[in-house]
Amino acid sequence: MDWAARSFAGSSTFRMFAKNHSENIRKFLQREIGNCSDLSRSHTRAEYTQRLLSCISKFRSSSIRMNSRSKNRGRRPGFGQAAKVINLYIKQYLLRPDFMGRRQARAARRLYKFAHVPLDRIVLGRVWEDFQRELSKNGIGSQPKMSRLQERDYSIIQEVIYRNARATGLPPIAYDFNWAERSE
Question: DSSP letter string over 25-70?
Answer without folding.
Answer: HHHHHHHHTTTSHHHHT--SHHHHHHHHHHHHHHHHHSS--B-TTS
